[in-house]
Amino acid sequence: MATKSIYKLVDDLPTTNITTRVLHALDFVAPGQWQNLVGFDATIRAVTGETDPALIQKIGERAVALYNDSKQGYQRAEWLYTTVDDIDTTLAKLALANTVGGQIRWLSFLNRITPKADTLQGLDFSLKLATELAAFCLINGIPGDSIGDFVKALGEYGKESLIRMVALVALDGLIPLGPDFLGKVTSLLSKTSPKDLEGNRLYQGIQTYIPGANSAEKLNLIQKNFQSTSSWMSELIAKSGLTQEKIVSNLSTIVDLTDRKLDYVAALLDMTTNYYEHTGTQTLARRLIERAVNEI
User: Fold this and answer.
1) Contact of 51 with 45, CB cutoff 8 Å
2) Given a cut of 70, is residue 108 above it in pLDDT?
C-alpha cells in the first residue's frame, strides 16, 4: 500500500502553505498545542527530547520498520488520512489559487468552486469523523468499531490530533453548516439510507475500513460514532467560544473573505487545504516514534 516511506512522508511535509496557515489561524482554540513538526529526525528530537545522533538513528530505524510491517495498521491509517483529503480536493491541485503576499485571488477561481449542499456537507462531516475512528483503531491495533475507546481518547487528544479535530469542527462543521451543525448532521443522518451512503464519493473511497457486513451496518456505525462524539465536540465549541465569526476573523488574515458566502469559503478551504493528511502524517509519526522508544 505504501508508496513512500514514513521517513519521506514526514520529510516532505511543507513548512508553510495554505494548510499550515489555516491551522495556525485555528490555534486560538487550543493555544500552543500544535507545532508544525517537519522532518523525521527533527520530529524524533521533538517527541523524545533525545540529542544523541546514534540513538535518534536507532529510534528512526525501529519506527520505519514498524511502519513497513504490513501486519500493523500504520500504512492503512496513512492511506485513510490521505484519501479523505484527496477526494475533497480532486480538482484543487489543478485549480489552486494564485497567491500574492499570502492572499488568495478569487476572481476566476471562484467560478470553479461549487459549494456542497448541506446534505452532502453533513454526510461528508460524519464520514470524516468515521475516518478518524478507523485511523485511531488501526494505529492502536484495536477493532474498528471501538467507539468507546475512541471517545475516551478524544478527551486526551492533543497536538496534531487535537488541531485536526478542531479543523474538522471549524472548517467542515461550523463554517458551512452554522452554529447548529451538530443538530443538522444528527437530523441528516436520521434520514440517510444505505443507498444514499453508497452514492457518496467519500464513502466509496473509505468503506473498506468502516466495520459492517453491508452499507446498513456501516451506516449504523457512522450514526453511533457521531452520536457518541457529539458531546465532546459540543464541549470543545463551548470551552473555546468557537464561532463562525471568530473563525472567519482569524482566516481573514490568510484569505480575502470580504462579502463571500460561507458555503463558498468552505468549498475554497476544501479545495486548497489538506489538513487531514498533513496532521495525520504527524500523528502517525509521533505514535511510531513513541512506540519505537518504548521498544528500544
Assistant:
1) yes
2) no
Structural domain including 136 reads 6-295
- CA 214 – CA 193 distance, rounded (Å): 12
DSSP 110-141: HHT--PPPHHHHHHHHHHHHHHHHHHHHHHHT
pTM of the shown model: 0.89
Q: What is the 3-state secondary structure (H, E, C) of 60-92?
A: HHHHHHHHHCCCCCHHHHHHHHHHHHHHHCCCC
Amino acid at 21: R
Q: How many domains does the structure of the chain reveal?
A: 1
At residue 62, the pLDDT reads 96
- Residue 1 domain-assigned (yes or no): no
In the predicted structure, residue 266 carries a pLDDT above the cut 80: no
SS3 38: coil
Cα separation, 70 vs 31, in Å, equals 36
At residue 16, the pLDDT reads 92
Decide: helix, strand or coil at residue 17: coil
